[in-house]
User: What shape does this take?
Amino acid sequence: MQTEGVPFLQGVWVQDSIPYQDQMLNYTLHQFTFRCDSVYTVMDMHAKTKTMPDSCFKNGNWKEYAQGVYVQRGDSIIVEGLYTKENQKQKISGCYKSGQYLPRFKLKYHSADSVVLESQSDSKPIILRKVKDITCVPKKRWEM
Assistant: This one.
Protein backbone atom coordinates (compact mmCIF):
# COMPACT_ATOMS: atom_id res chain seq x y z
CA MET A 1 0.00 0.00 0.00
CA GLN A 2 1.27 3.44 -0.89
CA THR A 3 1.59 5.74 2.13
CA GLU A 4 0.65 9.41 2.37
CA GLY A 5 4.21 10.69 2.44
CA VAL A 6 5.09 14.06 3.94
CA PRO A 7 2.07 16.41 3.79
CA PHE A 8 3.95 19.71 3.25
CA LEU A 9 5.98 18.25 0.35
CA GLN A 10 2.97 17.21 -1.75
CA GLY A 11 3.23 19.09 -5.03
CA VAL A 12 5.60 20.21 -7.75
CA TRP A 13 8.72 22.12 -6.67
CA VAL A 14 11.23 23.87 -8.93
CA GLN A 15 14.71 25.27 -8.48
CA ASP A 16 15.00 28.43 -10.58
CA SER A 17 18.72 29.06 -10.17
CA ILE A 18 21.70 28.53 -7.92
CA PRO A 19 24.11 31.14 -6.59
CA TYR A 20 26.96 31.92 -9.01
CA GLN A 21 25.72 29.46 -11.64
CA ASP A 22 27.17 31.61 -14.45
CA GLN A 23 30.63 31.16 -12.96
CA MET A 24 30.38 27.37 -12.55
CA LEU A 25 31.73 24.80 -15.01
CA ASN A 26 28.68 22.62 -14.35
CA TYR A 27 25.52 22.73 -12.28
CA THR A 28 22.14 21.07 -12.00
CA LEU A 29 18.68 22.61 -11.56
CA HIS A 30 16.07 20.32 -10.03
CA GLN A 31 12.35 19.81 -10.31
CA PHE A 32 10.71 17.49 -7.79
CA THR A 33 7.17 16.14 -7.91
CA PHE A 34 6.11 14.63 -4.59
CA ARG A 35 2.97 12.53 -4.86
CA CYS A 36 2.13 10.59 -1.69
CA ASP A 37 5.32 8.63 -0.85
CA SER A 38 6.69 8.81 -4.40
CA VAL A 39 9.08 11.36 -5.86
CA TYR A 40 9.73 12.11 -9.52
CA THR A 41 12.84 14.15 -10.30
CA VAL A 42 13.91 16.05 -13.40
CA MET A 43 17.52 17.24 -13.35
CA ASP A 44 18.36 19.99 -15.84
CA MET A 45 22.11 19.50 -16.36
CA HIS A 46 24.38 22.34 -17.53
CA ALA A 47 28.06 21.86 -18.42
CA LYS A 48 30.64 24.19 -19.97
CA THR A 49 33.29 21.49 -20.37
CA LYS A 50 32.78 18.38 -22.44
CA THR A 51 33.37 15.15 -20.53
CA MET A 52 31.40 12.84 -22.83
CA PRO A 53 30.94 12.13 -26.56
CA ASP A 54 29.42 14.87 -28.75
CA SER A 55 26.25 12.81 -29.28
CA CYS A 56 25.60 12.91 -25.52
CA PHE A 57 26.88 16.40 -24.69
CA LYS A 58 24.07 18.23 -26.52
CA ASN A 59 25.78 21.65 -26.38
CA GLY A 60 26.16 21.34 -22.62
CA ASN A 61 22.48 21.09 -21.64
CA TRP A 62 20.49 17.90 -21.12
CA LYS A 63 17.94 16.42 -18.74
CA GLU A 64 18.13 13.38 -16.51
CA TYR A 65 15.12 11.71 -14.89
CA ALA A 66 14.60 9.59 -11.79
CA GLN A 67 11.77 8.26 -9.68
CA GLY A 68 11.52 6.52 -6.37
CA VAL A 69 10.01 6.48 -2.92
CA TYR A 70 11.04 8.75 -0.08
CA VAL A 71 10.72 9.05 3.68
CA GLN A 72 11.41 11.83 6.12
CA ARG A 73 13.51 10.83 9.11
CA GLY A 74 14.13 13.74 11.45
CA ASP A 75 15.65 16.48 9.30
CA SER A 76 16.54 14.11 6.43
CA ILE A 77 14.71 13.21 3.22
CA ILE A 78 15.88 9.77 2.08
CA VAL A 79 15.13 8.67 -1.49
CA GLU A 80 15.45 5.18 -2.95
CA GLY A 81 14.83 5.01 -6.66
CA LEU A 82 16.09 4.51 -10.18
CA TYR A 83 17.24 6.69 -13.03
CA THR A 84 14.66 6.57 -15.79
CA LYS A 85 14.04 7.67 -19.32
CA GLU A 86 11.74 10.65 -19.90
CA ASN A 87 8.77 8.23 -20.10
CA GLN A 88 9.59 6.98 -16.56
CA LYS A 89 10.74 3.55 -17.83
CA GLN A 90 13.87 2.24 -16.12
CA LYS A 91 17.11 3.33 -17.76
CA ILE A 92 19.78 0.64 -17.83
CA SER A 93 22.21 2.23 -20.30
CA GLY A 94 22.78 5.36 -22.34
CA CYS A 95 24.70 8.60 -22.25
CA TYR A 96 24.03 9.70 -18.72
CA LYS A 97 23.38 8.24 -15.31
CA SER A 98 21.64 4.89 -14.99
CA GLY A 99 20.96 2.44 -12.21
CA GLN A 100 20.07 3.44 -8.68
CA TYR A 101 19.07 6.97 -7.67
CA LEU A 102 19.85 7.29 -3.95
CA PRO A 103 20.11 10.95 -2.93
CA ARG A 104 20.01 12.03 0.68
CA PHE A 105 18.89 15.54 1.56
CA LYS A 106 18.95 17.53 4.77
CA LEU A 107 15.77 19.55 5.21
CA LYS A 108 17.07 23.02 6.08
CA TYR A 109 13.81 25.01 5.85
CA HIS A 110 10.22 24.68 4.73
CA SER A 111 7.12 26.83 4.48
CA ALA A 112 3.89 26.53 2.48
CA ASP A 113 5.57 27.60 -0.77
CA SER A 114 9.31 27.22 -0.15
CA VAL A 115 11.68 24.37 0.72
CA VAL A 116 15.44 24.39 1.13
CA LEU A 117 17.18 21.03 0.85
CA GLU A 118 20.90 20.42 1.21
CA SER A 119 22.38 17.59 -0.78
CA GLN A 120 24.38 15.43 1.60
CA SER A 121 26.70 14.43 -1.25
CA ASP A 122 27.92 17.95 -2.06
CA SER A 123 26.43 20.23 0.65
CA LYS A 124 24.95 22.62 -1.93
CA PRO A 125 21.58 24.14 -1.03
CA ILE A 126 18.65 23.38 -3.32
CA ILE A 127 16.19 26.28 -2.96
CA LEU A 128 12.77 25.22 -4.25
CA ARG A 129 9.51 27.03 -4.78
CA LYS A 130 6.16 25.32 -5.06
CA VAL A 131 4.45 25.72 -8.43
CA LYS A 132 1.59 23.24 -8.01
CA ASP A 133 -0.27 21.58 -5.15
CA ILE A 134 -0.99 17.85 -5.29
CA THR A 135 -3.45 16.02 -3.07
CA CYS A 136 -2.29 12.56 -2.09
CA VAL A 137 -4.74 9.73 -2.72
CA PRO A 138 -2.85 6.55 -1.73
CA LYS A 139 -3.12 3.61 -4.13
CA LYS A 140 -2.28 -0.02 -3.85
CA ARG A 141 1.11 -0.62 -5.49
CA TRP A 142 -0.39 -2.80 -8.25
CA GLU A 143 -2.73 0.08 -9.23
CA MET A 144 0.16 2.45 -9.98
